[in-house]
Design goal:
Length: 99
Amino acid sequence: MEFDIQRIVERVVYEVPIKIKNVPKKLTVESIPPSFSLRIKGGEKIVEKLEVSEIIAEIDYPSQYTPEREDYAVSIKVPKNISWLESSPKTFKLKVRRK
């Protein structure tokens, strides 16, 4: 039996893009700002090799959007064996336009 023992480290990943999903075809929706920073924690080798593309950050338009609301939270998913501690900013605005 083998074990891979690693130090637990933290790292900040910058410019994580936000995806707006399930947008109706007649609309264009943008997140403001379009990306954010995420502080993550995990084994040194895993955290070191993590690519921004492995982090999924989404806002589900139909289930979250209302015209009266100003700030929206993002759903964040990171790979197994990594946890996220904090995002900056914590909330986002949505710019909605008709096509």
